[in-house]
C-alpha cells in the first residue's frame, strides 16, 4: 500500500551529498579512479592514544549500559573544563552543558525545543544544510536566508538592519562551512547584542574552532555573551572522530534545558565508552593552545591547503587561503553543477555550491581530505579537463 510523505518532508529538497555519493558509487563500479574532495570527513585516523583509551573503556562492562541522554556528568565536566582552559568561559556542567550524538543531531533537535510552525529562522546562505532543512523546515518553520557574500568576507553585513526583528532564532557558523571564512570577537559581539535586543536565539555552530591556521585563534560566542546563546561543538574535526558521533551544546541554561527535554524523548545518550575516550581527548588541552595531537592534524591540513591553493591559482582560479576549516571555496565562472559534473568525469569529486543554498551558485567546495600526491594528481586532471 503506497503512503504519502508528510508535507514537511515534501518541502525538503534532495540532500545533494546523497546524490553525489550515488554518482561516485556508479563511477567506481565502472572502474574509474576517484579522487574525492566531496564530503568533509577527515581521512586522517583518530590519534592513537584516544583509540587506546577507547579500547580500554569498551572492555569495562560498566560502560556497556545506557548513558543519560544529556551525557554523563563526567563528560559534561570535561567539556566545562575545556571551555575554561580554551576560552576562559565558566560553565555549570549540570545546567549549561549537554552531550550530543554528534553536533548535527543537537543543531536539529534544538530547533524542536523552541521553534513553532510558521516561525522565522535566520539561516546563512550558503550554509550547512541542516540549519534550513533538518532544523527549520522539519519544524514547519520558515527559513529566512541571509546571503553570505564574498565582498563581505562571507559575513552577515555589519549592520543587521535588514534582518527580521521577529525571528525566533539565528544560526551562525564560524569558522564557516562551506566558505572557510572566520569571525572576530567584535563581529560576534555585535550580532549577539542584536539577538539579545530582539529576543532572537543565537545558535552558534563552532565545530571547526580548533581547525584553524596561521595566527588565527577562533573564539567562542560565549566569550562575548551567554544570554540568548547556545553553542554547538564536536570532537569530529578536532580529533578526527567523525564516526564516533559525539558532540556537545553549551550556553544559556534555559536553552540547554529545552534541548535536554527533546533529547530525553528521543535518545539514550552516547555510549559511555565513547564519552570516556572523548573525555581523555579533551584532557589533552592544558590551556588555550592546541595539544600536540591536534597541532599535528592541523599541520597536515595546512600543508594540503597551501598546495591546493597554489595549484588552483595556477589554473586561473581566484582562491582565498582560508584561516579556518579544511575547505576551499571558490568561484568557477559558471554553473556549479556543470563544473562538478565535468570534474566527476575526470575522476574528481567536488561539491557544487548550490548544495549549501541559492547564493552558492557559481562556487564549489573542496574538502582537503586527500594526500598531497593525490591533490597534485587531481590538479593535473583538472588542468586537462579545463
Give structural notes.
The chain is an alpha/beta fold. It has 2 domains: 7-46 and 291-385, Alpha-Beta Complex (Aspartate Aminotransferase, domain 1), CATH 3.90.1150.10; 48-282, Type I PLP-dependent aspartate aminotransferase-like (Major domain) (Aspartate Aminotransferase, domain 2, 3-Layer(aba) Sandwich), CATH 3.40.640.10. The chain is 38% helix and 14% strand. It is built from 12 helices and 12 strands. The strands form 3 sheets. It has a 7-stranded mixed beta sheet, with helices on both faces. Helix 4 (73-87) packs parallel to helix 9 and helix 5 (103-114) packs across helix 6 (129-136).
Question: TL;DR of this structure?
Answer:
The chain has 386 residues and is an alpha/beta fold.
Secondary structure layout plus pairing:
Layout: H1 7-10, H2 16-29, E1 35-36, H3 48-58, H4 73-87, E2 97-100, H5 103-114, E3 120-125, H6 129-136, E4 142-147, E5 169-173, H7 185-198, E6 201-205, E7 229-234, E8 247-251, H8 253-264, H9 272-282, H10 292-314, E9 327-331, H11 336-345, E10 348-349, E11 351-352, E12 363-367, H12 372-385
Parallel strand pairs: 1-10, 3-4, 3-5, 5-6, 6-7
Antiparallel strand pairs: 2-8, 7-8, 9-12, 11-12
Helix pairs in contact: 3-9, 4-9, 5-6, 5-8, 10-12
Amino acid at each position: 500500500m503506497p503512503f504519502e510523505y508528510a508535507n514537511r518532508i515534501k518541502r525538503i529538497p534532495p540532500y545533494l551529498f546523497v546524490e553525489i555519493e550515488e554518482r561516485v558509487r556508479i563511477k567506481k563500479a565502472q572502474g574509474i579512479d576517484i579522487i574525492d574532495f566531496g564530503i568533509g570527513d577527515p581521512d586522517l585516523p583518530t590519534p592513537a592514544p584516544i583509540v587506546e583509551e577507547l579500547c580500554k573503556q569498551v572492555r569495562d562492562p560498566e560502560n556497556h549500559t545506557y548513558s543519560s541522554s544529556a551525557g554523563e556528568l563526567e563528560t559534561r565536566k570535561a567539556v566545562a573544563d575545556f571551555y575554561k582552559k580554551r576560552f576562559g568561559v565558566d560553565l555549570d556542567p549540570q545546567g549549561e552543558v549537554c552531550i550530543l550524538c554528534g553536533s548535527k543531531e543537537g543543531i536539529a533537535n534544538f530547533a524542536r525545543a523552541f521553534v513553532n510552525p510558521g516561525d522565522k529562522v535566520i539561516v546563512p546562505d550558503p550554509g550547512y544544510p541542516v540549519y534550513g532543512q533538518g532544523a527549520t523546515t522539519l519544524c514547519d518553520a520558515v527559513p529566512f536566508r541571509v546571503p553570505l557574500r564574498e565582498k563581505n568576507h562571507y559575513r552577515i553585513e555589519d549592520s543587521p538592519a535588514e534582518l527580521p526583528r521577529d525571528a525566533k532564532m539565528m544560526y551562525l557558523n564560524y569558522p564557516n562551512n562551506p566558505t572557510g571564512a572566520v569571525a572576530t570577537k567584535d563581529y560576534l559581539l555585535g550580532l549577539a547584542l542584536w539577538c539579545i535586543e530582539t529576543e532572537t536565539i543565537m545558535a552558534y555552530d563552532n565545530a571547526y574552532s580548533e581547525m584553524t591556521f596561521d595566527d588565527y585563534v577562533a573564539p567562542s560566542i560565549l566569550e562575548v555573551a551567554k544570554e540568548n546563546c547556545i553553542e554547538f561543538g564536536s570532537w569530529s574535526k578536532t580529533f578526527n572522530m567523525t564516526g564516533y558521533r559525539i558532540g556537545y551544546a553549551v550556553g544559556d541554561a534555559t536553552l540547554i534545558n529545552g534541548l535536554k527535554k527533546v533529547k530525553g524523548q528521543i535518545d539514550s545518550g552516547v555510549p559511555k565508552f565513547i564519552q570516556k575516550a572523548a573525555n581523555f581527548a579533551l584532557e589533552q588541552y592544558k590551556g588555550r593552545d592546541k595539544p600536540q595531537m591536534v597541532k599535528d592534524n592541523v599541520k597536515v591540513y595546512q600543508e594540503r591547503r597551501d598546495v591546493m591553493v597554489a595549484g588552483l591559482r595556477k589554473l586561473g582560479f581566484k582562491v582565498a587561503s582560508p584561516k579556518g576549516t579544511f575547505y576551499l571555496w571558490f568561484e568557477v565562472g559558471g554553473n556549479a553543477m556543470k563544473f562538478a559534473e565535468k570534474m566527476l568525469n575526470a575522476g574528481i569529486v567536488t561539491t557544487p555550491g548550490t548544495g549549501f543554498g541559492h547564493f552558492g551558485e557559481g562556487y564549489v567546495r573542496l574538502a582537503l581530505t586527500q594526500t598531497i600526491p593525490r591533490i597534485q594528481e587531481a590538479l593535473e586532471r583538472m588542468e586537462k579537463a579545463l
